[in-house]
Design brief:
Shape: elongated
Number of helices: 16
Structural class: mainly alpha
Largest sheet: 2 strands, antiparallel
CATH architecture of the largest domain: Up-down Bundle
Number of strands: 2
Number of domains: 2
CATH topology of the largest domain: Rhopdopsin 7-helix transmembrane proteins
Strand content: under 5%
Radius of gyration: 27 Å
CATH class of the largest domain: Mainly Alpha
Strand order of the largest sheet: 1-2
């Protein structure tokens, strides 16, 4: 088999082979653990490996000899209409515990199916019907046609926007149902989206710098940058496989469910909750009878029962205590205090810490111990919440008021 091991082909070959390996590992992991996000990431990784294949083989001499030239011509290695929706569904499967691929989701893959049909028509016309180059009489690979590359870039931009929308929907929901949202927010999902954004940025940059997409010598650095990014996304995705935390369903808000939380692994939280938009959390205040009375009841749970001291406190704990549904508690907190549930509970935790500092307890035990006593479950979360509330770090607050 022909393969010229030049510097360029060898570098891309390393990324290509590693992509195949990690795609296989992700597939095995996804099947063993029934982890849908790993399966989507496996598909993304193999598509990325195929994406760099034409340039890898091109630098290895394939476009110069048959039958290798025809292989590159007639096999659509660069699936520009398939990669973006696969990334999007990976994000959905990562964040949405209830995600199920439905029949209507197939529409996202219609453009890639049409391009596949187009590729088959090109092959049949040139190699079976006419037995001569018709579509390929210009000698240029159709995968690098400008219309296809630009349309693929637009598709990537659209699905990046959809992925960001899913992430922020998840974030808004989490802050409205748990008191430890900073702990369970998936840092990996955020990093993945940043890498996704960088992928988009380098595509745009290289389009501007060199719009002639089939010029091999000028595109090497783009493919190296792309390879590094997809390599990072694949490896990090494999090592950061996590259980989806939140469920989005087609109904409106329904917070009455059993929350599962492992104190030693706060990322493994299951919130079987349904909401499509954070605006669904807000309803007219007049729809809640005795609105002020409900505020008093909730405040009593914080001030008298000190429920904020529970580091794993979730909104259903309050609703169960008051014999109502969590939707009502969320409405009262959102509208009565103009806060989400996470900030509402942290407000009481910060007040309790400040009270302990005023009583001088910070002189006989550490600030972190005080924070844990008041319901915080990590130093970083405590410091963030304290500074957000007082505009000062805990140490600065003590130095300003008690030194």
């Amino acid at each position: 088999m022909l393969f010229s091991f030049s510097l360029k082909s060898s570098i891309l070959l390393i990324f290509f082979l590693h992509g195949i390996v990690f795609s296989t590992l992700l597939l095995i992991k996804g099947l063993q653990n029934e982890n849908k996000s790993s399966l989507w990431l496996s598909l993304f990784t193999i598509l990325c490996s195929l994406y760099i294949a034409p340039f890898m083989f091109g630098y290895a001499g394939w476009y110069a000899q048959q039958p290798y030239r025809n292989i590159l011509f007639y096999i659509p290695f660069q699936q520009l209409f398939l990669l973006p929706p696969v990334l999007y569904f990976y994000i959905k499967a990562l964040l949405d515990k209830s995600f199920q691929f439905s029949k209507r989701d197939y529409i996202h893959f219609l453009p890639s199916a049409i391009y596949l049909i187009y590729s088959i028509v090109v092959f049949l016309t040139d190699k079976v019907i006419l037995n001569e180059y018709y579509f390929y009489k210009d000698g240029k690979d159709k995968d690098f046609s400008l219309w296809y590359q630009i349309t693929g870039l637009c598709s990537l931009g659209y699905y990046l926007a959809q992925s960001l929308k899913t992430y922020y929907r998840y974030k808004a929901l989490t802050y409205n149902v748990v008191s430890f949202a900073d702990t369970v927010m998936f840092k990996w999902a955020k990093r993945f989206l940043i890498a996704f954004l960088m992928l988009m940025a380098i595509r745009i940059l290289f389009f501007i710098v060199n719009p002639e997409w089939d010029e091999f010598g000028k595109k090497f650095w783009y493919y190296v940058c792309f390879s590094i990014l997809f390599y990072y996304m694949s490896i990090s995705g494999y090592t950061n496989s996590i259980l989806s935390a939140t469920s989005f369903r087609d109904s409106l808000l329904n917070f009455d469910a059993d929350f599962k939380f492992e104190a030693d692994n706060p990322s493994k939280i299951e919130l079987p909750i349904s909401v499509l938009d954070k605006d669904n959390l807000a309803e007219d205040k007049n729809e809640i009878p005795d609105f002020d009375l409900w505020k008093e009841k909730i405040e009593a749970l914080m001030l008298v029962d000190k429920m904020y001291e529970n580091p794993a406190l979730v909104i259903s704990d309050l609703s169960n205590k008051l014999g109502t549904h969590s939707k009502k508690i969320s409405q009262v907190i959102n509208q009565g205090y103009n806060m989400n549930f996470n900030d509402f509970v942290n407000h009481y935790r910060i007040s309790a810490v400040k009270q302990k500092i005023e009583e001088g307890e910070h002189t006989i035990q550490t600030l972190l111990s005080l924070a844990f006593e008041c319901g915080f479950n990590s130093k970083s979360t405590f410091n963030r919440a304290f500074k957000r509330s007082t505009s000062l770090s805990p140490k600065e607050y003590i130095e300003k008021h008690y030194v």
